[in-house]
Write a structure and sequence with these properties.
It is an enzyme of class 1 (oxidoreductase). Its main location: cytoplasm. Its EC number is 1.5.3.16. It is a single chain. It contains 12 helices and 22 strands. By secondary structure, the chain is an alpha/beta fold. The strands form 6 sheets. The chain has a 7-stranded mixed β-sheet, with helices on both faces. Strands 9-2-1-13-22 form a 5-stranded parallel β-sheet, with helices on one face. Strands 12-11-10-14 form a 4-stranded mixed β-sheet, with no helix packed on it. The radius of gyration is 25 Å and the shape is globular. About 1% of the residues have low confidence. The site of flavin-adenine dinucleotide has 39 residues, from α1, β16 and α12.
Length: 502
């Protein structure tokens, strides 16, 4: 009998899937049969470099979070992706010296913003165990959520401040302003984590999250360049686009001798010895929710439980091109926006509700005519449904309210083109990145990463082991939500198979 080569099918051509494919192919070449099936019509997944108004922009992953020790920084350097002739998003790094403006057009001085910014930073540093001594903190947190801990910290601070002289600014009392500046920082934190509400973010997990040290940078030649580099090692035909998997049947006996069969949306099938599933946590949640049967037989309850407990949120980016007739002092500023809360009677009805939990709007680099804002949670989803005109109108009215007219010429339509991402409603992503939700823990990420069956040993015999392996950012318990987390998870599962075949 001629022995067949093991067939490995990787579901998803994002960072995790292509890293796994690259590792497997470069390690053993054609001694494994390797296929990457991708449901979309492009590779990269949540990495998607595009062009807007002549500038290179990122619709998904944007930053290399810390360059020291980052494998992606190394790839970008080795492949000349750290230089470019074309302007690119955040090529000056993070813009400095924001203009912080409160609703009604009140320019806030550093003396009213900085103490709250420091308070917020100290509270986050405490949660993330970055402070040297716990005494430096106002309150201690045990089994709290991040949101409730932050709110306790703010309440304690306001209590201490209440005896001090209070000066109001326009319709703002000092206290309401302090609360709103704090809320602006909460909104920024929501974007880092993708959680709609920080009260759904687990307190204890924060200290385990790891970022590489060193600068945070964007990729001059485009993040997709790293993806293209990983894919370039694979022979033609390995990556199959527009192959959406609907169902994964496993633990089979008989079918060509291979224990897994994939069913595609075009009703074709493919058998495999090993399948590496790299779809997002959002796709896994949808595929394992009641009434869905992405896995047949269904996943064991411990894994299904981990999938349902872990958090996965929506973050979207909005790029706006400034109207050629718009002129401002030194271009458009790095604008930090401070709004009255949604239930306040003082809020201006011209500012749309969906903007109120967004914290900044800034040029993508100094003097660029393209400005960018990030949206998170419910508002990010709402944004996906708006028309371009509604977005342009909403931002234009907000800028008219916020920016004192001495900073720019007053034209009603400040933008003439918009590009917004739609990660939440895209069926291949159903959101942006994962977080450890209150009620889950990083152990759930380990559970999610466990292969099925792990061993072909006594209990599970005669099932062949490692039929379904799991990679993707949500399976990495210290680097989840990032591109390098996805990269490490792809390597981990490729190495697992390489070790299995010795
Ligand atoms: C707006 C935004 C900003 C971000 N910013 C950063 C950042 O600054 N820095 C950072 O490190 N990370 C950032 N991230 C996160 C980062 O992009 C992801 O963590 C990483 O790219 C995930 O890679 P992955 O391989 O795990 O998943 P994915 O990229 O989602 O890859 C999975 C692939 O599976 C495919 N797929 C899904 N379902 C099926 C199916 N049924 N059949 C076949 N194929 C399927 C998808 O099309 C996709 O290509 C950001 C993400 C977003 C959305």
């Amino acid at each position: 009998m001629v022995s067949k080569k093991p067939r490995v099918v990787i579901i998803g051509a994002g960072m995790a899937g292509l890293t796994a494919a690259n590792k497997l192919y470069t390690a053993v070449g054609a001694s494994l049969e390797l296929v990457v099936v991708e449901g979309g019509s492009r590779i990269g997944g949540r990495i998607s470099t595009a062009e807007f108004s002549g500038d290179r922009i990122e619709q998904g992953a944007t930053w290399i979070h810390g360059i020291d020790g980052s494998p992606l920084y190394k790839i970008a350097g080795d492949t000349n992706l750290l230089i470019s002739d074309q302007p690119w998003e955040c090529m000056d790094g993070t813009l400095e010296d924001p203009l912080t403006v409160a609703e009604g057009g009140h320019l806030l001085t550093p003396s009213s913003v900085d103490p709250i910014s420091r308070l917020f930073k100290n509270l986050m540093d405490f949660i993330q165990c970055k402070l040297e001594t716990a005494e430096q903190c106002l309150v201690s947190g045990d089994d709290l959520s991040v949101g409730s801990f932050l709110r306790r910290g703010l309440a304690a601070y306001l209590e201490l401040e209440k005896e001090k002289n209070a000066t109001s600014v326009g319709s703002w009392s000092k206290r309401s302003l302090q609360q709103a500046v704090f809320a602006m920082h909460e909104s920024i934190q929501r974007t880092y984590t993708s959680a709609h509400d920080l009260s759904s973010l687990d307190y204890n997990a924060e200290k385990d999250y790891v970022l590489f040290p060193g600068d945070e940078i964007t990729v001059a030649g485009g993040y997709s360049g790293i993806i293209n580099h990983l894919a370039s090692a694979l022979p033609a035909g390995v990556i199959q686009l527009d192959r959406k998997v609907e169902k994964i049947e496993w633990a089979l006996s008989g079918c060509e001798g291979r224990p897994v069969v994939l069913h595609f949306s075009d009703e074709t099938t493919m058998s495999a010895d090993h399948v590496i599933v790299t779809v997002s946590l959002g796709v896994l949640k949808a595929g394992t929710s009641e009434g869905s049967n992405m896995f047949q037989p269904p996943l064991p309850s411990c894994k299904a439980g981990a999938i349902s407990r872990l958090g996965y949120g929506v973050v979207n980016k909005v790029f706006l091109q400034l109207n050629p007739n718009y002129r401002g002092d030194d271009g458009f500023p790095f604008l930090q926006m401070v709004f009255h809360p949604s239930d306040s009677e003082l809020r201006n009805p011209k500012i749309p509700q969906w903007i109120r939990r967004t914290s900044f709007l800034c040029p993508i680099y100094n003097n660029s005519r393209v400005v960018l804002s990030w949206f998170t949670g419910q508002e990010a989803l709402e944004l996906e449904k708006l028309t371009d005109d509604e977005i342009i109108g909403g931002f234009s009215r907000t800028i008219s309210n916020l920016l004192p007219s001495k900073h720019h010429n007053e034209i009603s339509q400040k933008f003439n083109k918009v590009l917004r991402t739609q990660w939440g409603s895209s069926p291949l992503f159903l959101g942006s990145y994962s977080y450890v939700a209150a009620g889950s823990s990083i152990d759930d990420m380990d559970t999610l990463a466990e292969p099925l069956p792990k061993y072909g040993g006594v209990d599970l015999a005669p099932l062949p082991p490692l039929q379904i392996l799991f990679a993707g950012e949500a399976t990495h318990k210290t680097h989840y939500s990032t591109t390098h987390g996805a990269y490490f998870s792809g390597l981990r599962e490729a190495n697992r198979l390489l070790k299995h075949y010795n």
